[in-house]
Amino acid sequence: MDDEVEQVGGWGLGVGGRRGQVTIFIIVGIVMVVGILGAIYFMSSTEVDTSADLGPSVFIDKCIRDVVEESIDKMLFNGGEVVPSQTIWYQGAEWNYLCYQADFYQGCYNIHPMLEMQIEKEIVKDTQTKVQDCFDSMREDFENRGFDVGGGATIYSIDLLPGYVAINLRKKIDISRGGTAESFENFDSRVLSSIYDLVRVARDVVNSESQYCHFEYNGYMLLYPQYDIRRIDYSDSKIYSLTDRRSKEEFKFAVRSCAFAPGI
Fold this sequence. Notes:
2 domains; 12 strands; 42% helix; 32% strand
């Protein structure tokens, strides 16, 4: 006997069709449940590892590099200082002067002659509290798990080098529990960055501006095509943007050299 057919909205829906729909709904429900369980498992498996999970060296390395990377970004944006000291306001931001002359028709004075060393010291000053916070977090985590943790003095410095920033970090850490002990001391690391190279280019810009009141940036880019150099003349100043084409890092600063008096 043929299946009975129920007319709905002009369409015939047989018993077999209704069974097919129920099967589809069951399959969709199973897929949704599996998806939810998978999402829960994924979220639980991506929890942040603690220092005890990673080990002191790995945890400190990651923590310190994150801190230093953040500070490098500040140096690039603020013209080499945590807080810009002498600036011009342009397009919603302060641009730090690296070379400045208040008088007209005279070359500027390099007001940051040791820019590389200054940035190294600025990064240390900006990060030393957070570096100690990394060690404090590690200590707290191990002690919460029943370890005894002892530490010595922190010796910390930064070096800008071609292609990266060296993190020089020494601190004696002793971790013990149940008659076993382990010591750590060398926490040196590095962060990939073009800041050293961009500072070198900035130094060439400043030297030329102070001596000749001009920097031929188009010719410079022909010699060094890895850099993109932009200059905007604004309010008796020059706004410079130096970008490493490979890393995309940008160093920003201003120069006031041989400015022309208004109305002349």
